[in-house]
Structure formats: structure tokens, C-alpha cells
Amino acid sequence: MTFNALDATALAQLFTEARTHNKLDGEITDAQLQEIYELTKFGPTAANGSPARFVFVKSAEAKKLLEPALDEGNREKTMASPVTVIAAYDMDFHEKLPQLFPHTNAKAWFEGERDNRFIPAFRNGTLQAGYFIMAARAMGLDCGPMSGFNNAMVDEAFFKGTHIRSNFLINLGKGDPSAIFARSPRLRFDEACKIA
Description:
Layout: H1 8-16, E1 24-25, H2 30-40, E2 52-57, H3 60-66, H4 72-80, E3 83-90, H5 97-100, H6 118-138, E4 142-146, H7 151-158, E5 164-175, H8 189-192
Antiparallel strand pairs: 1-5, 2-3, 3-5, 4-5
Helix pairs in contact: 2-6
């Protein structure tokens, strides 16, 4: 069996040379954001539930809404970033399952109390946010994913009256390599993995 692996240049862009950037600039068009999502949506989720929801904080007005929710250490870099993505998840994602998983009544699997949907919504929404980072890198952008903000404030500002909850933020743009420190170590295969 042969594997059709990406070449070293592509792997470097996606993984080995890609970094979390703290200083991002440049211009990102709405069309680019749509292209990133068009790649992201193909990543697998349980029952094709696709609970992730993305808000692209780009305008001055939207940035003003986001700013008070940011921890002090994340404020300056986020306000300077061309776009900040609020990666969120829909606690009522199951309502779209008749459209997304039409060959069986998957919606019934998730009916009931909203709290019972938290784990699949959060898990699969987080997966999709990870796919988003890889899609953005594949499109030539750099990312600065982060926590360090008040989720309740973001939910109040951007998702009030909905069943959508924020997960984490991703600053997008062209990264400045001079603004990052040396890559931190990673665990070796034998420290993190076991073949059973």
C-alpha cells in the first residue's frame, strides 16, 4: 500500500514550521474567510453534526465589543490583528441534523436537556476550530489561537439570546517571525503514544 503524502513544503506550512503568532498584520478579505470555512467544513464530526460557529471580528465596531472581554495580556495583539475569529459551538446543533445527516433520525439521539448536548457540541466544535486553523495555514495565513478572555462577556456581546457559546479565539493575519520566541519542546512519540 502506498500513501499519497504531502511534500515537505506543505507539511512545513501546516505543521513543522507553523507557529502561534502574537503579532499579526496584513489585510484579509471576506472572500478569504469564506475560502477558509469552505475547507474547514469538510473535516469530520460525529454524525456530521458540525456544531462549530465562527464569528469574524473585523470591523472597528465589533472589535470594540470584543475588547472589554480580553485579558490584559491579549488585548493589544488582538486589537492589532486584522481579524479575530470567535470559535464557538451551537448547543442546539442537532436541529440541523435532518439536513446534515438525512439517512436516519439522528436528531432524536440528541433530544432532551441542552446540557446533555454539551459534550458532543464542545468536542466536535473544538475539532472544527482545529480544522479551521489548519485550513487558514493551508491558505497562507498565520494564526494566534488563545484563551485568555471572558467567555461570558463574549457570549453576551455576540451570542445573546442564542444557544451558541464561545470556545476560544483565533487571531488571523500574516505573522511577524521576529515577535515569537524559539519553539517550545514537544513530547517524544514514546512519551505520548503507545501501540497496543
